[in-house]
Amino acid sequence: MVRSLISGVVVATLIMSAAGTQPLAIRQEDKTISVVNKTDFDIDAIYLSDVDAELWGENILDDEEVLKPGEQVEVAIECGRWDVRVVAPTDSACVLEDVDICESNTWTILADC
Questions:
Q1: Which branch of life, at top level (predicted)?
Q2: pTM, rounded to two decimals
């Protein structure tokens, strides 16, 4: 599934494969990436926010969607640097700051917080 992102976030430890970086203020074209859950818990929501912004954007997962361990989802995201927030079913959340979204074609969420 491909989802459009206005603003959102991700959690835990993310490993990004690929190369390239963007200056903080520069945004490029949208890019489709895979978000892979390699944790032992479900992920109920993933939000992105502009770096240092106080508000989170909309959940990039559908309202009823849960990213279960071992699953992946394709999302279309505006290239640039974002803060990411991942939320588990217990409402516990992790925040990863200043992530270069287009540095990779895949985000792998590896560990819980």
A1: Bacteria
A2: 0.70
